[in-house]
Specification:
The protein has 248 residues and is of the alpha/beta class. It is 44% helix and 14% strand. It has eleven helices and eight strands. A hairpin with a 5-residue loop joins strand 5 (157-160) and strand 6. It starts with 7 loop residues before the first helix and ends in a 5-residue tail after the last helix. The chain binds BIS(adenosine)-5'-pentaphosphate.
């Protein structure tokens, strides 16, 4: 799959610049991807960003990248501990992380936020930040799937320890057992994909994140997408939903 930006500015924060900057796009898309853990947000984000040439801004990826830090601050250590348990990271830490990366929201290629916002408070802060930057969301794509199918997707997920490419033991197996097709890195199971952590993540989604469905319905931005079927079938639905005009 073609890489349109290396996301260095997003993943590293601070003064980091992307080594492969996003291409100039005439009408950049500004999207949020919403849905329960394991529904396929990361898979769809990769496909949508390759097609729309937007930048994939995943908060989960930022925290997982920070997990390799040799000397984490106590606050970061506590946050990573919450993540491994399946709990959400504290709102204020997440909002600060987004504010520090406000320039990524102004990216000339547009953006697709994956995993943010995850609470109503985060959504309100995103609205304020976008207003300050004179930007607006085009749509919120909400992937929907029943719980059994989600649990099967999470249980079979394997991720490359090096390049973070995502596989599934049944639906998207690697060519060689345990090895990444892209970079030959070792495929691992995420710590928060253990059954106990999956249960916590699902409960947290229902109590903290699902109220965003109503929040973005009220804003006229929500597009519900049936996430059953192959990644390609879900992609076709997602792309159509991303291209529909806003109902505001
Ligand atoms: P995050 O990384 O955002 O994880 P998540 O939302 O739990 O979502 P996942 O990455 O688990 O799944 P996905 O929906 O992307 O599915 P995928 O495409 O991989 O967040 C992780 C943690 O970080 C949170 O729990 C929290 O602690 C913290 N965090 C992050 N943001 C935060 C925030 N804003 N506030 C507070 N805390 C925050 O697909 C899953 C599997 O299914 C894969 O194996 C894939 O190959 C397979 N698959 C995908 N599509 C299909 C298909 N159509 N058919 C069959 N298999 C499929």
């Amino acid at each position: 799959m073609t890489v349109h930006s290396d996301r260095a500015a997003w993943l590293q924060g601070g003064n980091a610049q992307c080594n492969i900057p996003a291409p100039c796009v005439a009408h950049p898309h500004r999207l949020v991807l919403l849905g329960p853990p394991g529904v396929g947000k990361g898979t769809q984000a990769d496909m949508l960003c390759a097609e729309l040439r937007t930048c994939h801004l995943s908060t989960g990826d930022v925290f997982r990248a920070a997990d390799t830090c040799q000397t984490p601050s106590p606050a970061l250590e506590a946050a990573l501990h919450s993540m491994k348990r399946g709990d959400l990271i504290d709102d204020e830490m997440v909002i600060q992380l987004i504010r520090e990366r406000g320039h990524c929201l102004c990216c000339r290629g547009g953006f697709l936020l994956d995993g943010f916002p995850r609470t109503v408070h985060q959504a309100q802060e995103l609205d304020k930040l976008l207003t300050d930057l004179n930007l607006a969301l085009d749509a919120v794509l909400c992937l929907d799937l029943d719980l059994d199918e989600i649990t099967a997707r999470l249980g079979g997920r394997r991720t490359c320890a090096d390049c973070k490419a995502v596989y599934h033991l049944q639906s998207r197996p690697p060519q060689s057992d345990g090895l990444c097709d892209e970079c030959s890195g070792t495929l691992i199971q995420r710590e928060d994909d253990r059954p106990e952590a999956i249960r916590v993540r699902m409960q947290t989604y229902l109590s903290e994140t699902s109220p965003l469905i109503e929040y973005y319905t009220q804003a006229g931005l929500l597009r519900s997408i049936d996430a059953s079927g192959t990644p390609e079938e879900v992609f076709a639905r997602s792309l159509k939903a991303a291209s529909e005009p806003a109902a505001r």
